[in-house]
Amino acid sequence: MKHFKPIKTDRIYEKVLDQLKGAILTSRFKPGEKLPSERELCEEFQVSRGVIREAIRALELRGFVLIRQGPAGGAYVTDLGFNQVGNAFLDLFKTNKLSMKDIAQVRMHVEPEVARLAAKHFDPSQMDMLLNLEKEEHVDYVSYEDRIDRLTRVHKALAKICGNPFFEAIVRSMLLLTAEVVLKVASNHDLLHGPGEHLRVIQAVISRNEEEAAREMAEHLRQFSQNLIEMEKTYRRQIVQE
Ligand SMILES: [Zn+2]
């Protein structure tokens, strides 16, 4: 007769891993930041150094941290928490299990809501950052890739301001998929981003007008979704030829 489950001592590192992952996913440790040292973690978790090392290795394997050697060495938090989600979707897209039409449909639901939440949670201290991101879209760009990257920054910033990390992960994944197509099918990106469309969204967010922010974002997405769906056809043809 059994009353209790045996304690598996080799599972302790997983408990440490879960807590560390949780701390990264909830941004208690942000990309670029260093995790506390092995010694500090040993003290806080009250476990041995071996357990901490195993947990850190597992974190590295899952792409959450990058181990750097040397005097300033340690476990540095990467931005891969988001990239992992995005890469999983990217695999589905590349193998034709997801279409741009599917993505456009989800973006149409998610991004206006993200813009609405961003307007709700907007703090005046974020105003300069948002306006600067928009301004930087208009400076001379060094490459097509640079241009696309600049055009995604406003979307990423709004997703961050919206205050829901899951929305942020979804938005970033969708941007990754969109960039995959847009970068392969180099075309005139001005077709996708009409002049002033981002600015109208940003202004609505800054004035904390939730409904208008959502409406402007929906309008912006409507403009370029059809173009993306058209671009996907070229993308698929190119993939077959590669
Ligand atoms: Zn945009």
Describe the protein in words.
There is one protein chain. The chain has 242 residues and is mostly helical. The chain folds into two domains: 70 residues, Winged helix-like DNA-binding domain superfamily/Winged helix DNA-binding domain (Arc Repressor Mutant, subunit A); 161 residues, Four Helix Bundle (Hemerythrin (Met), subunit A) (Up-down Bundle). Helix content is 67%, strand content 3%. It has a two-stranded antiparallel sheet with strand order 1-2. Strand 1 and strand 2 form a beta hairpin. Helix 1 crosses helix 3.
What characteristics describe this protein?
242 residues; mainly alpha; Arc Repressor Mutant, subunit A; Four Helix Bundle (Hemerythrin (Met), subunit A); 2 domains; two-stranded antiparallel sheet; 2 strands; 67% helix; 3% strand; globular; binds zinc ion
Question: What's this, in brief?
Answer:
With 242 residues, the chain is mainly α.
